[in-house]
Design brief:
This protein is mostly helical and about 375 residues long. About 75% of the residues lie in helices and about 0% in strands. The protein has eleven helices and no strands. The longest helix has about 70 residues. The relative contact order is 0.11.
């Protein structure tokens, strides 16, 4: 099996973090307008083909048993790669043995102008015999490794041919599966769909969740979009870690950039989605006393304690802006071989603090409005 030497380019990393959420938000909005999908989706089928086609999941998604053909081929690839790893270890071990035997021969050779004794001749003969055995074992290890490399290469070609063929056949397979499921629905109509009740998570103690004003709605819409934008980054991690697993176990090509790219991405997501979590009342709250207050008492307590909130956000914004400005001025990069830009990552800290400040303003306005109205 050939090794993978792909390293994610910086422009592709940042471009994907920007473009992918926008595309995902568009498709989700369009799907909501169209309603719940019925039957298999060609897009989903191709996603299965791209991410798990080596296991035939795109065929199994369409309830096509031809997907089972992919499983033994993939298991054989894994087995061949395991044998290749063992073969490389054997080649390395036997090569070291050959080098050691050659050193032993040089040491056992009779120096010039010296009469060889029977012991010296015997030692040289033993060293030469050990060298022949080591060279034979080295040649056998090389032949075994070459054999398993050949098997793995042909299995990879077979898998690639199967996937390419299915890439062309997939639209027709999806169409036939849709027709089959439509016929089944006509014969056996499904029961009416019922929307399951899902309890809202969070503390549920904020009395102003139902308060709306023009300005607070505009601020919260901004934070909702920012939170939704950052949330789709979690989908990217599925694809990236999928690549790492396949590269590590199927191609024996582990990476370092996957881990670094993902922990940086989740750090940025944490900063940008903080305001959205605050808007949705998802932050942890110490509510030993707070829960005992009436709704008006809670709103009043939020107004009083907002002083500490704005002190925290102000300090966060000021320190993080200096932190990001230093990184921008020095064009800071990571110290790993990937060398990604750090200033871009650090810039999300003051941006996130700014969004959190705006959400705090919205919360304070809603608390004041709630006290003025006396209700949500």
């Amino acid at each position: 099996m050939p090794s993978l030497n792909f390293v994610l380019p910086h422009w592709l990393y940042w471009g994907t973090l920007i473009v992918f959420p926008l595309i995902a938000m568009y498709f989700v909005k369009r799907q909501k307008q169209r309603g719940a999908p019925r039957g298999p989706s060609l897009f989903v089928a191709y996603m299965f083909w791209l991410c798990a086609g080596f296991m035939g999941l795109h065929r199994l998604y369409l309830r096509n048993l031809w997907g089972l053909v992919f499983i033994p081929v993939f298991l054989l690839i894994l087995y061949a790669n395991g044998e290749m790893r063992d073969g490389r270890e054997d080649v390395s071990r036997t090569r070291a043995a050959v080098e050691s035997s050659h050193t032993a021969i040089r040491r056992a050779q009779v120096p010039p102008n010296t009469q060889a004794t029977p012991e010296m001749a015997e030692r040289l003969k033993e060293a030469q015999g050990a060298a022949e055995v080591a060279e034979q074992q080295f040649a056998e290890a090389q032949a075994g490794l070459a054999r398993w490399q050949r098997y793995s290469r042909w299995l990879a070609i077979l898998m690639a041919a199967m996937l390419l063929a299915d890439a062309l056949l997939l639209p027709g397979a999806v169409r036939r599966a849709s027709e089959r499921e439509a016929a089944e629905r006509r014969l056996h109509p499904p029961p009416p769909e019922q929307v399951a009740h899902v309890d809202q998570l969070g503390t549920g103690e904020d009395p102003t969740l139902g308060v709306h004003t023009w300005l607070t709605d505009k601020i919260e819409l901004l934070n909702i979009r920012a939170g939704e934008f950052a949330a789709y980054w979690a989908v990217l991690s599925v694809f990236v870690y999928y690549y790492e697993v396949i590269a590590r176990f199927a191609f024996n090509s582990p990476t370092n950039w996957v881990h670094e790219s993902m922990f940086l991405m989740y750090g940025m997501q944490y900063m940008l989605a903080g305001a959205y979590a605050y808007r949705e009342d998802q932050h942890v709250r110490v509510d030993v006393i707070y829960t005992r207050f009436s709704p008006r008492g809670k709103a009043l307590a939020d107004i009083v304690t907002s002083v500490f909130f704005f002190i925290f956000v102000g300090v966060l914004f000021w320190t993080s802006w200096r932190f990001a400005a230093d990184a921008i001025g020095n064009d800071e990069h990571s110290f790993t071989e990937w060398g990604v830009q750090y200033w871009t990552v650090k810039l999300t800290m003051p941006i996130g603090a700014g969004l959190l400040f705006l959400q705090g303003i919205s919360k304070l306005m809603k608390d004041i409005t709630f006290l003025a109205r006396g209700r949500a």
